[in-house]
Design goal:
This protein is of the alpha/beta class and 184 residues long. It is built from four helices and seven strands, in the order ββαααβαββββ. The two termini are 28 Å apart.
Length: 184
């Protein structure tokens, strides 16, 4: 059901004179309504503009991207990091590479951003899927499959338990989208 408002939503939104909690859209945390965030955004726009078409394939890149990716890698304890303009694009980049490493297996409810064209997403209970998948993988050769799953089911608010992977005796690539859980 679509609601109409005349004001900027934050953590809450007012529709037809009633206040509601707001968990949707592209600003899950209501950051766009934070005075500090808005100040930082204004400073960034003053320095870099509002629409800068810089990318990895452009002939001119902002140093800001390199600095951001280095800081993110250090913060997460990784060798490197890559930033994209959206979670959807980052998931698509990762899965485009990952599907070259084995046959894809999609967890129930896998977010559309994790789906390669023609993806067959398993139905049913997520935990049952993982248990069954681990058993199946243990009967297959190494590196035959790639598992795709979300770390958190954003529709149910459930954090998935990957403990069953400890029983895995075969090598398999596991791609976990944590865009609904990283840092929170």
């Amino acid at each position: 059901m679509i609601q109409i408002t005349d004001s900027m939503p934050g953590r809450t939104v007012v529709c037809d004179g009633r206040e509601y909690l707001f968990f949707s859209g592209f600003s899950y945390l209501g950051m766009h309504a934070s005075p500090s965030f808005r100040q930082w955004l204004a400073e960034g726009q003053a320095q870099f503009g509002s629409v800068y078409p810089s990318s990895r394939i452009g002939n001119l890149q902002l140093r800001l991207y390199e600095e951001l990716e280095h800081s993110l890698a250090v913060h997460t304890g990784q060798q490197a990091a890559a930033c994209f303009s959206s979670g959807y694009l980052s998931a698509q980049a990762a899965l485009t590479w990952a599907v070259t490493k084995g046959k894809p297996l999609y967890a129930p409810g896998a977010h559309p951003a994790l789906r390669y064209p023609g993806a067959v997403v398993t139905a049913g209970n997520w935990q049952d899927w993982l248990e069954t998948t681990v058993d199946m993988l243990n009967r297959e050769p190494d590196n035959s499959y790639v598992l795709f799953s979300d770390a958190v089911d954003p529709l149910r608010g459930e954090v998935h338990d990957f403990g069953a992977l400890a029983r895995l005796r075969r090598k398999a690539l596991v791609l976990v989208d944590d865009s609904h859980g990283l840092g929170f």
